[in-house]
């Protein structure tokens, strides 16, 4: 019997379920609780199109889909990455997977609510109404986030959290995530610690670990994560954060082991499969890399979560196995992506890298030389990052092995090495790209040592009482090498000795300019579209 429920009467709902009977049941339940307009679809692709074209107040989505590799969670992640799910929309996952529910409860960040099968109309009504009310009560917070005023949004959240008003825990979670974005790690940690000590919630424990790591306390963060995983062994986000710490520490073997655990608990996750495959490739586990990356392509080639660096690595793998047909298919996919986004320098470089490999395998030597030079011509580009350098080095090594001589190659290797050797980990990453090629490895290691020597020599002036000379020297070397370490160090010295440097404003302008040009791009290659960078946190749709 249809109820007259004013809270849902004007709502528009979308039901996504591949099972006709289950879909019909959910539609009828929504009608019974008074939802005014209901659409339905059986396929993930159709659901995505509906959500791209129309606005819905409620989405009920089944976790499993017949004849589809994607899950409801994959759809949810894709919708958020694509900005197709506004804050006003309530997303409810319908699942019979008790293990999934356990992880969702631990994270309290994946969705607005869930419904465990078998379920009743009363349970559905309770979940939907509660989620809608939370959206309305915290609407002023979401408005501030939409406007980009994170500081205001965080302040509003913390006020509700401190007063323990309705939905105070959720407000605390959002507030802490905003503080993390604002890099106020100490305040974020205080919120997470408060929640964990009073409520014992796993997501708060994870937040504590993330805050410690972002504050430079990696060992303490690892101890927190190890304790958390003992309590919640299926909490995939915890493995993601641990993987990220291992990567930053340069321990790729530990990172791969952790990544495997994360993928094991979420076998359909595109980003986690890409991370595992990339790490396997970096460690020479080529069979695992090929299988895992191929699976990520089959699952997510059309998804916003898919990172096309996956195709570059697959191109390298196919080239090394002389698999011409497979390499041609990879090239076709990369070129299609580059053509569909002509403004993306990154995709153009990727297409050039794979195109060079394709011509090399076909023994088109003149084409190889032309494309090799084209790949290197943008080394000084502000968007040219460590990933692009990795791809360039990987291509140059294969040209060298094929006895194709590029006179400029050694200079290119030194140039990218000077720019991206900001730490031992980044130096090691570039060396991995060269394989066993001793000449290029020596150039990379020499560049790393040279950057260290430049920093030490510049700092000697500050030690002897001339910090302005230190800043000037670091800025000169930083602009010549485009090395983020030198530029960041110049800014640090400038701020430390601000009262003793007369030309502070002038030097600060130069520091900020160089930071904008050369410190915004990554100093490590990507491990998936949204790879372990802001992982483990509440997915704020900004």
Structure description:
- With 542 residues, the chain is mainly α.
- It is built from 26 helices and five strands.
- 66% of the residues lie in helices and 5% in strands.
- Strand 3 (58-62), helix 3 and strand 4 (90-95) form a beta-alpha-beta unit.
- The longest helix has 26 residues, at 438-463.
- The radius of gyration is 26 Å and the shape is globular.
Query: What structural class do helix, strand and pairing data support?
Result: mainly alpha
Q: Could you tell me the number of beta strands?
A: 5
Query: Beta-strand level of the residues, as a percent range?
Result: under 5%
Bin the helical content.
55-70%
Rg, rounded, reads 26 Å
How would you sum up this structure in a few lines?
With 542 residues, the protein is mostly helical. 66% of the residues lie in helices and 5% in strands.
